[in-house]
Amino acid sequence: MRADLKELLSREAQRVHPSPAPIDAVLTDVQTRVRHRRMGATAVAAVLAVLAVAGPWAIGWIGEGSTVGRPADAVPSDPSWGPYRVGDTIYLGEQAELTNKHLADPMAEVPRGVVYSTATGKIGLLTTAGEHRQIGFGATMYPALASNPATGWVTWLENGPGRDRGEIVVYDTTVGRFGMEVDRLPVSKDGPRNCFRPRIANPGPFAIDGSAVYYCTGKGDFVWHPTEADAEPKQILPVEGDPSTSDDYLLDVRAGVQVVARYGDGHPTTAIMPVGQTTPTTTIEHELIDGFLSRDGRFVAAPLDEPMQVYDTSTGEQTTPDYFAGQGNRVPLAMTFTDDGGVALGLIHPERGTTNIVTCSLPEGACEMELQDLDGGVFFANQRHQ
Amino acid sequence: MRRDVADYSDFVAMRWPSLVRTAFLLTGDHGHAEDLAQSALTKCLVAWPRLRAREAADAYVRKALLNTYISWRRKSSWHELPSEDPPMIDVDDSMEGLALRSVVLEALSTLPPKQRAVVVLRFYEDLGVRDVAKQLGCSTGSVKRQTYEALKKLRHVMGDDMRIASGNSGHDEGNSR
Q1: Position A110 pLDDT exceeds 90
Q2: Under DSSP, is residue B176 helix (H, G, I), strand (E, B) or coil?
Q3: CATH entry 2.60.120 includes domain B1-79
Q4: Residues from chain B contacting residue A23 (CB–CB below 8 Å)
Q5: In this complex, is the C-beta atom of B3 within 8 Å of any C-beta atom belonging to chain A?
């Protein structure tokens, strides 16, 4: 039957003669076309605008064209949204600024600055004093980073011995001039499970809460306490022996709160519960791809929703501020939580490619314009686990 | 590896026909199929700077296609409507072929979205159980269960047509490759 059903399906499919590939439509005209079909128009507009300004696909070696110096006068000294990048430049307080055309999206805030990655896989530390140094080399280009901004730990995945092997590196940026490695854990990346679905990310670490490092492999989601006497990693998901939870994926952990994406029965939901529990205290009837928590665990951001949304983790209700007010036809490009309990958004003008940064309080939703018409797309450190 | 707009354009040109055909089997409608394929490529464009290898892009765009299809099907306004802009379909060379085609599409339309996706991935894309599970983000057991249920329904709807077309009892469904 299998062969014949395959033949039937193949014959059916071959009857279709697709129109020419809509390359121009996808690249330039897609915004209008897609809006009519309830797709991700804002995200596309944002990406197109960034491409027009910055061209993020140019890839070379770190060091080429890299400069460190004083930022422009307009840069706030200690923005509540932490380190951020505009176009090819990372801004960090009053003293530090790093320009490199090979910078990638992933950044992670640490007490003395920011850890960043590049399109060639290099991982660097930029300090508030304006010094920078390479501290690692990721297993992939655009290596994903996760940090604990309170302790200064940052983590990433490096290549291990063998094609399917990797090593999770935990690095303490607070030690010495440029930090030092805490430990590394050999892991097997292979397995039937897909790290790609809830986080759009490869296997590797995606969160640090306290001294617990959370990571995903093809076998599941794990927690590792590198400084504890019993440092053996423990599997969190899927829960062994309980097939009903085999479609669950850990999204983020902060302040003892965990967010789990559940895909069972074709109806994705998001479950929120304290670490160590399997029964949700709150359920959001929605899939939060790349969702991430505020530092206190009170809110969860849905950066790939259209438009970007914020949910209250205690009630599951949306508490998204009206960040569009007064922004014309700008669309959200980036979102992160601020250190005073609010949220910051980068809103880009699709045609001009300039970005405004707006902050809003939570849950009140009072919004304030912080920076206007920045030249290029904005990305915040820790805005997502990539 | 240098990836730029030209690289993405090459990717779109290469993947477009097969994406549309897969989407056609999922939606049963040429217009919806092209919308679905374009949506998947649009999502791929958004993620393109993060996709490290061509294999990752292939997997991503297929996953985007499936997720978007299932998402559309969840929405109450989604219906499998005749296309306003009919596809350019070759006239089949036999009445039997035409009849069988309509039966196949009708049979597929009776399946829930995930079961239909499983059938298309396993029997058209020729993916193994494990790969289907990866694409749909579920367990291999779930794929086997969905395959079993889907084939049971297809047999029920297609009746003799299926038996004439298949010529065997179909004991291989659900096996991992």
Answers
A1: yes
A2: coil
A3: no
A4: 9, 12-13
A5: yes
